[in-house]
Amino acid sequence: MTWTANPLRDKRDKRLPRIAGPSSLVIFGVTGDLARTKLMPAVYDLANRGLLPPAFSLVGFARRDWEHQDFGKQVRDSVREHARTPFSEATWRQLSAGFRFVSGDFSDDDAFDRLSQTVRELDEQQGTGGNHAFYLSIPPSSFDVVCKQLARSGLAEPEREDQWRRVVIEKPFGHDLDSARELNNVVERIFPADSIFRIDHYLGKETVQNIMALRFANQLFEPIWNAHYVDHVQITMAEDIGIGSRAGYYDGIGAARDVIQNHLLQLLALVAMEEPVSFDAADLRAEKEKILSAVRLPPDLDTYTARGQYSAGWAGGTYVPGYLDEDGIPSDSTTETYAAIRLDIDTRRWAGVPFYLRTGKRLGRRVTEVAVVFKRAPHLPFESTSTEVLGQNALVIRVQPDEGVTMRFGSKVPGTAMEVRDVTMDFGYGYSFTEESPEAYERLVLDVLLGDPPLFPRHEEVELSWKILDPIEEHWAAKGSPEPYPSGSWGPASADDMLARDGRSWRIP
Question: Which CATH class is domain 16-170?
């Protein structure tokens, strides 16, 4: 079975450059929550949108004693519950014809030999063409044994030059710089660097990608996107939920490692980087790496970092327990559920502009945003009483949940007096486009199958991020317990004090 694009349709159907070629996706850890709620629904949604070819197969690998049809039922249940697009029997029949399941343990040679045989059969029966991606939806501690098994069984190496093999790994990419380097060495011993795809699902969100469009497709913003006009930048990822069932993962990791090291530093890089020569992966990464290498920590980490741990309180009208009372959390845990830091960037564009990053659980509401706050006008030719409530202009990029962009500026209030007040001008994806935004994993899975890597950080970016965070983590480790803050609030008082020392305050989204 072969697959080719019809060149006569290329000008009419913009999907065609984004349709994957013949291939399979092998998911290790297919019974886990990520596979069930994100990966399998994403595969179905891609197929439903016409972005997967008939010559596509999905292979599950796990310890369950399943047959192919049992795996198919699991996928169907997952799709019914979590898919973004409507269920289509026609799509399902085509997609499910390529489902396969291999039962076994990661240390089981026979299981990987069966997987190798399954992959060869798919090449013959489904026309997958020798192109296979291996998604490691498993703990990093298992990467070594799985990668070695892929190499031993011949799965890591394509048989011909026109075929490919790729590996996909999920964050966390280590828990500090040394472990990140060790993890990278494990994977790169088996797969070449351009065949390794490190997934940060935030980079697949439409609104995150829109940062690049906003900056570089519009002449309006570039002249003022610098220290001459920008006062400071706030990057926030707030959650209104607690740790839920993630106690085993979260305790000992904390908010900074879980969110700041990857999601928020990637947002910082996209906001602060220079315009790349192109959006080719190498050019985009080069600019992000330049910015991350120019990040400077404040000299006083006591003053310009804050960490907290949520205590019991009211959240969403419900009284909820504190972190230390959650199931599976030790009563003496010093893991932070809130982290805030100030970073500076030693470049001409951003000299003197602080970047404030914060993340936390059990906060006032769920929101992720980037706020570029501009300096005040040097002179206001109005009566002092006319502009009493006038704030600073701001451009706010809303990543979730109300995806869009808001601009805040001063405008005259209708009436006979010259009264100026803050107003907002709003763009929202929901009412500006008829197209529904795809889920982040749809974009990222498709990029893996296409071999399109701009949204995937290389190990250099990962290591630079750990170089920023490690000194902060080491400082906190010597400081005892984090500061408690009530559930439903916006974090500990020390975070507010951090900005107040600079004459600023956090936005309340």
Answer: alpha beta
